[in-house]
């Protein structure tokens, strides 16, 4: 044990010793030692006798001169003697015996007056033993009727009839043993040693035993005083009032812990030993070391003290036990009170923190920033604020956990704790919901402003790109440019869509700010009109730029498409002309023969028909190109002269090709017809020759005429067929000469056109 603990322990013991010091109740009453000099005057005594009702008998013997006592001494004597019997006996009322034998009325009169004025108990009857002289008898009868208690002038014989002789002392012809000096000693030292058969003559042992005997009155008063002090402790322990602040609760709990020493160190066991010691002597159960037995007289007042002593002992034990229980109960209640005050103080601190920070929060909670940098700064400040709030929530969770544990343990203020805990939780949730709502708004504001500023920063770049007059010439470059141009609008549109989407989401949130909490949220009535107006302004600015960008982008897209259309037109024209130069004209120039037989002519005709089917796709493309030339020329983007020049060249070339193709087809068709007619005519002539060589003649004139008519018909038909066939041949030859002439003319025209292009380039 440390020196500090030893000092505290010593202080506690001194406190207990001081608390149980003699005093208090013991100073409020008289004891035998206080009036021992009056008791020895034997003015009055309690013999222990009882009247027929069981009431105590108080005797005023004769020849004791009570008139010599001071009035105060007489009052104190009566007060003391009235307190000796037990409450039960005392409540029945005292019977007074005033012995006037051998005395005068002047001697008894002060006693009666003192009884009238000073006796605290109830007087049932006052027996006055008649004086011996006649005149004294008369004076007594004349003066005893003015008192408030009943008096009875009685003779000694009549007294023995009114009261059992066993309850009267020998001076009244009774058998009750009474020794006044012994009675005084008993009141002072409780017991008196009485020699027994085995007693020794050692006076030192008698002295030691007498010294060891406890005073009865001392014990009773000490017991009552201790009960009073224990009762005072009980009143403290049963006091329902509890401190209403934490410091008071802590102080009261410390004081209560100090009371434990007063309870546990109460001298109940020590006093119980004294009480049991007294009981052993009253009951005669105690024997000294020399075999001497100590008993008291048969005084009923002493015997009646046995239940009182036993009751006092029981009361002391039960009171101390009860105090221990009360102390434990009170300790638990004070600990609960201490916990409650800690809880209340913590809750109050949290309420103050929430209220203070809610006020700080409401200062600028509708600001979302007018640019990305400001929004980031607001979000950063809010994040720090929210982080500090989350750190505080750890304390709130601890407080709520403590509240739950107190309620689960059966705390006397469970309802209050639940109510305060619920209120704290609601207040925190309200603030947390507002913080979450603001976190959402600021997070959306940062994203919106960042994308909006990125969009606006790119507007100039996008605009310059769309307005650039540099347009590629090559088809591949134009296709790449168109792809890049399409990618550009997709990028612009995607960025624009993100800005508008974030702006719309932010506006929806600003217009309906309560999302994660109820209508009782501290942000339920937030006025975001200014912030919403700012967001709308930014969105409208972005929208205006977007429309302008789409307009100029579309313009450049048209130019690119027109330029690409021109280049594709030129490419397609070139492809057609190349095909004519490399395939069509070559085929026609190469295939000028008409064949020397019908079979060969038909083969060439079939080959030409196949070539026509092959050339049909080129012819269709050329027709489409000539139709598209007008559209390209009318756009204004392309050089109409160049377009029309290309178209005219294509048209001329196609006209030449188609003419040559048609001439070739006509020649082949004429050749096939010519050879077919030649073949038919030849066969006809051969058949006719055979028929003409026949020797068959007609048998009659009619037959001869018929044969002549047939011959003439055949001759005319043959001549006509021959003439037609020769004419077809001549026509074919003429067509061949024309084709050759046209071919030479077209060749010279083509050479001149080529020279003109070279000169133009």
From TrEMBL:
**CDD domains, from UniProt?**
SEC14, SPEC
Q: One cellular component GO annotation, for this chain's record?
A: cytoplasm
Q: State the UniProt keywords alphabetically.
A: Guanine-nucleotide releasing factor
Gene3D superfamilies noted in UniProt: 1.20.58.60, CRAL-TRIO lipid binding domain
All copies of the CRAL-TRIO domain together span 49-180
Q: PANTHER family given for it?
A: RHO GUANINE EXCHANGE FACTOR-RELATED, TRIO, ISOFORM A
- What's the name of the protein? CRAL-TRIO domain-containing protein
- Record organism: Elysia crispata
